[in-house]
Amino acid sequence: MRTKERRQKLLAQLESKGVDALLVATPENRRYLSGFSGSAGYLLLGPQHNQIVADGRYWAQCAEQCADLDLVKFRQEDFKSLIDCAAAQISGDSGILGVEGRNMVVADFQALQRALPEGWSVQSVESCVEDIRQLKDQEELELMRRAAQIGDQAFRKALECLKEGIRERDFCLELEYQMQKLGARKPAFDSIVASGPNGAFPHAGVTDRVIQKHELITVDFGAYRDGYNSDITRTIWVGQLNERNRFIYESVRQAQQRAVDAVKPGKTCKEIDAVARQSLLDAGLGEYFTHGLGHGIGLAVHELPGVRSTSDVVLEPGMVITIEPGVYIPGETGCRVEDSVLVTADGCEKLTRSAYQEVGQSHPLETVGA
Does the chain have fewer CB atoms within 10 Å around its N or its C terminus? Predict the structure, then answer.
């Protein structure tokens, strides 16, 4: 794992921001910079700091996963809290300690201010590590490809139980079971199986509703493995769609494909968003596309860059983003199609590769030749 290289990039970021050290608590950032996968602890990083602060539950884990960092062992008899222990490691007569302001609760911020040595101050540093995380290295991409492959394989297997009369909840259970059976630690997020009118809610979740023939079913899911996530949505059905649902599905498919085709280095995120949004506007469905086109994905399901109409971020090779236009008609139906794509030197590569059901097919397994 290239944690030393990543920390060097961070030090350059800190220098440009005039920050002398950074206290890292966000689990994804902590893992990215150190390899430590535990659920609690602080990294203290800077030109004069190269430490991980953890309690006794994680000392052996730290020794194994991040032996190149100095382990500071927190003991309750020595310090009131983990953050007090971290503050006690600050060296130097004065300086600025950066913190992840968006992810730090007020109580911890105030405790840190009280515990810092005289001459030191606290400054919120926004998206410092997250900016670096936008560009995935080859090791990360291999882990993401594996997570995506698990999701694809699990979906294919779960489709064998899809039929009229099955509950959303039961299909979701089968899908998540298959992901874990194939090697996922857990689902990347709460899976969505939204049939018929439930599809009108972008984040509908899962209910006891019984799936009926001839209706759209939105299935949004992902696998979490070795710290990395996949994210994919397929809209499927059993039976035949009526003319209205066929039009909605084909319009969303077309918008998604046009946006995927537009992805390449040098394009801004808002330009990609505009491609899908204009496609749905032309189809008369623009008012029902009520969210941004996508997001970055990696150690977190939702990370930078945001692919939305307000984002001027320029796409670069190594970024992984989702492309997920949708149409949500209250009280009627919904449809979303999503893939995670890697920005390459001349376009993009789909990491998620589950087949799309085609209009005229009565079951999604017909697409994969079952």
Answer: C
